[in-house]
Each structure stands twice: as structure tokens, then as C-alpha cells.
Amino acid sequence: MEIKKITEGLSVSPQITTADLPALKAAGFRAIICNRPDAEAADQPGHEEIRDAAAAEGLEFRFLPVTPGIVTDETAAGFGAALTELPGPVLAYCRTGTRSTTLWSLSEAPRRPLPEILALAKLAGYDMNGVARRIANGGKTPTDTGDAKFDVVIVGAGAGGISVASSLKSRKPGLDIALIDPADIHYYQPGWTMVGGGVFEPEETAKTMGSLIPKGVHWIKSAVAAFEPKDNAVVLDGCRVVKYDRLIVCPGLKLDWAAVEGLEETLGRNGVTSNYRYDLAPYTWELVKDLKEGRAIFTQPPMPIKCAGAPQKAMYLSGDAWTRRGVIKDIDIHFANAGGVLFGVKDYVPALEQYIEKYGAQLDFFHNLIAVDGPAKKATFRVAKPDAEPTTVEMEFDMMHVCPPQVAPDFIRVSPLADAAGWVDVDQATLRHKTYDNIWSLGDVMNAPNAKTAAAARIQAPVVAENVAADIDGKSPVAQYDGYGSCPLTVERGKIVLAEFGYGGALKPSFPKWVIDGTKPSRAAWLLKEKMLPPIYWKAMLRGKEWMARPEKITASGQ
């Protein structure tokens, strides 16, 4: 008997026998629901036999049979009613547990968001994507037939989504393209480090989404609830269905603030800030300006995260401001990094270490932030050093800049598009999905082993556009992505270490060394970051102008 827990009040299992009832009673169950019709199999005990054995153990029983493949709205409603009426916890069973889980999923639809239902079912080992459309429709069978249909549907209108829409439209002007995104505002997120350093105003990093959607591209202002790749369909919140010939998935990732106990309650006050949020980056600069003495902690969670250099960029710009004000000697700087190295590409580490020394910062490797007590100004870290038992360490602070843990969005993690870790599963060269050959992905949400940066999306967008266009023409992929990413490390106001690298940490400089030597801090790299990259982003990248971003062709020798 294999029991799988869905919630505190419900577990499901394959077919049970009368001999299982004493063990179920001992395990604390108080009621049984049978969702299997009698006589499905020759060796199957009838529901009355189970009912009588359950009664002998003092367990209540309900019979709600479901014919395979026919889960009616009425039966789903009856299941929900049974869970309300019966004493819990309840065990529901059928042949494998799938029908019971399906009934629970549909009955919970009015009360729980779709991603949560799919995730709980998946944790128990049941894939409910096949009924996602019904769940999104409040548990009812959809009746609408007026679904929209497009040549290409793009999920996510961030840096990757708008760029790939523009690049694709420039190659195939006649394509009918839809961009799906519920956001009103589009943010230039690489600028938030500069806001937190007092260089940019926050308003410089935001524009209305409507002003950026490429001409001729349909904007569907909605959230995605689920994917049905076998039917070439995307299910939106409210159960609207959008069909596609080809799909591009780039919704970014999820900042998991809730993963750190106490963090959400104290963000934006008690000296706790983060440049990873538009509304908090100005508070970073406020704290830096006001701090005259005490301890400043800068945290970095386990990988993967977007812009892996951002947590230390905040530290360097803060250290520079304190140095210029002459208070650096009175400020105890700590860089609490869940990883074991300062930066993943070793060629850039020596230059960064000079600034660690300049600002007197202490490197606390293998320190992962797990809890924050804002009013008490205390942070708790889990310290997991190699070859040592994990411990917890508590540190007091006067200011703390937090980089939150980051995961794939819920609706991606529970979808058929995801790998075991929850990221969209693509070929790292062509960015085409490994299972569904009419789906591509780019940006932070896919699982290629590259740095998650806007600079990476700038290179990926033309690769995807080129390969989608080739697929439309009946050709094999023609462009490949080499893992390029860029991280302009703002080591002081006016100087940047311009890290540019590809797969495996291979250096990928964009300029000759006499223009910018990326392994050394330079004024030229700062000017690039401050003056050139924002207009390149707004006026070139998002408009499909691929300056220094032409895709690399796939050679005859392969990838």
C-alpha cells in the first residue's frame, strides 16, 4: 500500500484491500473515499467489501466512482463536498491514485491558485497538466471555443521577450506574433545597481510596457496559468486559451523573498534593503548615505541567480561612498556568500580582491542567509563548509543588502516544459526545447549553464529569432549561442571590471584590450555602463537592432 500525501487533510493511494484497513486506522485516517468503479479488474475488492471493513475499524466511507477518462464536474463537486463532510484526515483511492488526485485538483480550483494545485499534485507524484485548463476554469469543463491563434506566441515581455519579438518581426514582417505579459511597467533591471549607488534616478529605469511592444505585435495583458504543449496551447488565467504554431518562453525567474524567514516583513525598513527591487534600490542609497559606523552585510544566495555579480556590486559602490566620506574605517563590511568563491570566472578575481582589501571587507564564504530579525537587527546564516557539519551563525547588522534566493516561476516549474530542477529544458546551443521542437526559450528561465544577465538575453534573442525563422522556412537550426554573458562589476564610482565570458568560463571580450581590458578596473568600462548601455538597451536591443549581437552561425562540423 503506497500512500501519497496531497495536503494535511488528504492522502491518495492505489487500490487498497480489506487487510489494509487496520494499518490505515493506526496511521490516523478517519475516513475513506473510493473513486474506483467495481469490477474494473478481476482481483479488485468491491467497494461494499471495503466499506464494511472500514466500518469495523470505525472509519467512515464514501463511494464516488469515476470511469477512467471521464471525470465529471458533478463528481468533482461531490468529492469536494465529501472532504468537507467527512472527518479528516481522509484517504482517497482508485486504481493508481490519479483519479482521486484529479478530483481533488478540480474541487480545489475555486480556492487555490493553479500553480499551487499543480505543485502539490506533482510533489505526490501526479501530473495534473492534462486538466490544467479545467482547473484554471474554476474546476469546470471549459465551454469557450473562441480561442485566439497566432503564428508565434511569446510568454514574457521582459528583456528577452521584447527583444526576440523585435528580432523575429524584422526577419519575418508578416508573422502574426503575440506577447503575453500582465505587467504595466517594463524595467531596465541592470540600472538598479546604479540607483542603489546614487548614480541613476529610479525613474530612468522604467518605461510603460505599451510604449515598448513592437509595432504589429499583439500584447495579451494576462498571466499564464499553464502550458499544454501537446495541443500547442497556452492557458491563461481565467481559462482563456491561446494556440500557437511556435512558442517562445521567457518569463524571467521568481525572486523567492519568502524563502528567508522574516525577510518580507522587514524589507525597506530596519536597515534591510535590496537592489533587486525597483522600490528598494533608492533605500539602499539612503542607508549608504546615512551610515557613519557599524556593520554592513551584503548577502548572496546559492546559484543560480540573475546577475551573479550584483550582490558584490552593491558592496563595492557602498564601500566607495564610505571611502569618499572618510568613514570606511568605522564600518565593518561583510560579504556573506553561500558559494565558495568571490566570482565564478577566475580571471576577474584578482582585480576584485584588490577592492575587497581596499574596503576592508570580510569574505564569509559558505554563509547562506536563512532568517532575518529586522527590529533586533540580527541575521541568521546556515554555514555549510565542505567536509564539515553545517552550523548556524547569527550576525548583528546596522545595514544589510540582501540578494534573495531565486527559482523558476511556479507555472514553469510544474509544467511539462521544465527539467527536474524546474527550469525550461533547452539545447544549450540552439535554445530549442529538448522535447517539443516547436518551442524555444531564452533569458533567465531556461536551463543552459550561462550567466543570467540582460547581456546574455541580448545575444540569445537573435539566436532564437534566427532559428525560429529557419524552422518556419523548413530548415534546420542555423544559429548557436556560445553562453555569452556580461557582468560590469562596479568596483568604485567611475571604474568597472567588465567581466565577459561564455560557457565554461571562456573569456569573450567585446573590445580589444587597448580599448577595455576586462580583467582590470577601467574608466572606459564605467562610461559604457553609465552612458552607452541604457540607450543600447532601450533603442537598439528592444527594437531588434542587433548591434554587436549578430548570431553565430552553426558550422558544418556541428555544435
UniProtKB/TrEMBL annotation:
Residues in FAD/NAD(P)-binding domain copies: 150-270
InterPro entries recorded: BLH_phosphatase-like, FAD/NAD-bd_sf, FAD/NAD-binding_dom, Prot-tyrosine_phosphatase-like, Sulphide_quinone_reductase
Cofactors (names): FAD
Residue ranges of domain Beta-lactamase hydrolase-like protein phosphatase-like in the record: 3-109
GO-annotated biological processes: sulfide oxidation, using sulfide:quinone oxidoreductase
Pfam family for this entry, one: Pyr_redox_2
Keyword Transit peptide in annotation: yes
Keyword annotations of the record: FAD, Flavoprotein, Oxidoreductase, Quinone, Transit peptide
Keyword Coiled coil carried by entry: no
Listed SUPFAM superfamilies: (Phosphotyrosine protein) phosphatases II (SSF52799), FAD/NAD(P)-binding domain (SSF51905)
MF term (GO), any: FAD binding
NCBIfam families: TIGR01244 family sulfur transferase (TIGR01244)
PANTHER family according to UniProt: SULFIDE:QUINONE OXIDOREDUCTASE (PTHR10632), SULFIDE:QUINONE OXIDOREDUCTASE, MITOCHONDRIAL (PTHR10632:SF2)
Protein name from the UniProt record: TIGR01244 family phosphatase
Native species: Antarcticimicrobium luteum
